[in-house]
Amino acid sequence: MHKFLIRSFVSSLVLLFTFTVAAVAKDVKAAFVYIGPTGDHGWTYQHDVGRKAVEAAGFKTTYVEGVPESADAERVLRQLANSGHDVIFTTSFGYMNPTNKVAKEFPNVKFEHATGYKREHPNVSTYAARFYEGRTILGTIAGTMTKSNVIGYVASFPIPEVIRGINSFTLAAQKVNPNIKTKIVWAFTWYDPGKEAEAAKALIDQGADVIAQHTDSTAIVQMAEKAGVYAFGQASDMDKFAPKAVLTSVENNWGPYYVDRVKAVANGTWSQKDTWHGIGDGMVVISDLDSQMPADLRSKVKKLQADLASGKVHSFTGPIYDQKGNLMVAEGKTADDGMLAGMMTYVKGVEGDIPK
Amino acid sequence: MIKIVKRDQPSRAIFFFTPVLAIFLTLVAGGLIFFILGFKPFEALKFFFIVPIADKYGFSELLLKATPLCLIAIGLSFCFKSNNWNIGAEGQLTFGAIVSGGVALLFYEQEGFYILPIVILAGAIGGMLYASIPAILKTYFNTNEILVSLMLVYVSKLILDYLVVGPWSNPEGFNFPETRQFSDSAKLPILFEGLRIHAGIFLALAAVVISWFVFYKTYLGFQMKVSGFSLKTARYAGYKGKKMIILVFLISGACAGLAGVGEITGPIGQLHREISPDYGFTAIIVAFLGRLHPVGIIFASLVVAITYLGAETAQIFMQIPKYTGQVFQGMILFFLLASDYLLFFKIKFIGSKK
Predict the structure, then answer these.
(1) CA proximity to B261, closest of B187, B210, B330
(2) A164-183 residue pLDDT tens
(3) Mean pLDDT by 10 residues, chain B (354 residues)
(4) Which residues of A touch B164 (CB under 8 A)?
């Protein structure tokens, strides 16, 4: 009799527990904090596409757009943590310190910070994409398609993320065309259509016939369209903004990661991680290849894409030299993640100096 | 029939009534906009103006947000009262923050009671230096202070960009555009545990008291007022115009610089590219909504501060686009300027006769 009672008590406890977990799982709410408007067709737009994927997976989401990286970020985060959100994605580098600060106060809320490096509390994860893999593809295309052998590159800020992109792009272009030069214009903005267009124009005036960009607006591809040169879309598929100029785009695809992490919160399996996904995991996506590209180039790019995904090819495979001719990566070796994360030197073939 | 008649003299009662009218009209128009967007207007207004400040934390955030607005607007009122159009408070804020942040970084990982006063003073001096540029150019070269002060805003932001990307960037920060975190001795003390409201609010309150005293109890205040009404009269009375121009710009710059100090040594705790969501520009609305009166500016800064908080709350709870906060700020200014018409004109209803 006793045993029966205990057994039924235990089993009902287990049942109760399962039900609670199931009930909680359904109620998981995710919040997203954006730096720009959801209609920027670049960085924030793609994060919002990812948020919609979370909604489609059956979870409730909230977002706040245009949150400045000033003292306001902390208040928005606290308010979201306070109003029943279980996981909060902070999608800009400048939210790093506020994210860690608020995470300390809300140990039961999970925080996911994009592109940062601080994980001061067990409830903070960081995630970023290996966009440089996409830039290896773009470099291959640019090196093949250029006639003037001058490639323009509109850069945002001199941080490792951007330097890494320039290097990866240049290395790939050199591989198919040893004579190319990459000219850089620093726009010192992530999103400013006016400045970006000016930068693109300056590069075109200097003879660049392919323009790459590490800023978010569609102004550069539109300028390229007007000038009759080639360009690549950034963050989202920008083909419709400049159908002649855009050869392909590197898309930021956050959806799978977001769904994965929100599900992990729902299942109680979430744990701190530092994620850096590339083409292989589908976080970096190459849009359709334009038909202006010769067929053999297109098949070459497809193969390169598959090799980058499988890990057969690494964007930074030696020998790699810096501008002064010093060896950065020895022959047959690849750059490790530590080197990539702190990359602050140009490779040979990039013109100019990194602004200091 | 309605007839519009010019007043003999601007009405003093209407002078203080129109800001209230402007706020009322903003609420009505805002409710209408919410309705058109498909939201319940009263619920939306509740989330916009009541929910954000309904608890202790929310109220402390309101004060935190209003502090820089109030401080800058008080400074601007010195300029505006005396007919000097300083539009560049944002630049003076930025430059003040740069100077004070630089000093705070010099004291990195150091302790001492003397550090904070030096950091605060540095911010005020930075703001004054930056405001002195349009003032000196105006007095000695007759340049337009609106243009000069405005363009200097962009210059100050570029200087800040340069410093946080380059020489002042955190050596352990992977070259991201931000400085190190300031040491605790360089930060304004927090007033209540768990809240963000800091001692900077006393700077704003001191500015309110001092400005009231100067405006209404001193000869300088009288001179400013006369210059504001008529520069020719001021000159005829023998006031030293140049000195006053420079003085009001310095006061205004110091206030904006202090507002910058409050942000970086208060809630932010470091220098990075985005230290102010355009407080220097929003404070212009605050100054006019407060009728350039110290007490009016206190209320105006609270009203404008709540449009920031309300926009966040409304987006979180009702999915109303956050940019409606800016629409509200714009509407307040618009209705204020529009209702100022009543200052100089009155509307007469005349019974129609057949």
Answers:
(1) B187
(2) 999 999 999 999 999 999 99
(3) 79 83 93 92 93 92 96 97 95 98 94 95 98 96 95 96 90 85 93 91 96 93 87 83 91 98 95 93 94 94 94 92 90 89 79 56
(4) none
Task: Tell me the average pLDDT across A19-27.
Answer: 51
Q: For residue B263, list chain A residues with Cβ-Cβ distance below 8 A.
A: 70-71
Mean of all residue pLDDT scores within chain A: 90
Q: Per the CATH hierarchy, to which homologous superfamily does domain A131-251+316-341 belong?
A: Response regulator (3.40.50.2300)
Domain boundaries, chain A: 19-129+254-277, 131-251+316-341
Q: Which residue in this structure is represented by tokens 């363009």?
A: B151
On whether residue B354 sits in a domain, the answer given is no
Q: Which two tokens stand for residue B81?
A: 């009262």
Would you call B90 an interface residue with chain A, using a CB distance cutoff of 8 Å? no
**Residue B13, pLDDT score:** 81
Amino acid at A317: T
The CA-based dihedral angle spanning residues B16, B21, B22, B25, taken in that order and rounded to the nearest 10 degrees: 180
Average pLDDT (A38-55) is 93
Considering only CB atoms, A70 lies closest to which of B61, B161, B276, namely: B276
A203 touches A183 (CB < 8 A): yes
Of A70, A159, A160, the CB nearest to B277: A70
User: B93, B128 in Cβ contact below 8 A?
Assistant: no
**Residue B116 to chain A, least CA–CA distance (Å):** 20
Query: How far does A71 lie from chain B, in Å, by closest CA?
Result: 6
Distance from the Cα of residue B265 to its chain's centroid:
18
3-state helix, strand, coil in chain A (%, to 5): 45, 20, 35
State residue A189's pLDDT score: 85
Q: Which domain holds residue B316?
A: 2-349
Which residue has 């706040």 as its token pair? A64
ipTM of the complex: 0.86
**Would you say residue A100 has pLDDT above 50?**
yes
Assess A60–B contact: CB distance below 8 Å, yes or no: no
Measured CA to CA in angstroms, residue B95 lies from A251, A339, B99, B279 at distances of 38, 36, 6, 14
- Selection from A113, A56, A63, A118 nearest residue A85 by Cα: A63
> What CATH number matches the domain at A19-129+254-277, 3.40.50.2300, 3.50.40.10, 1.10.3720.10, 3.40.50.300?
3.40.50.2300
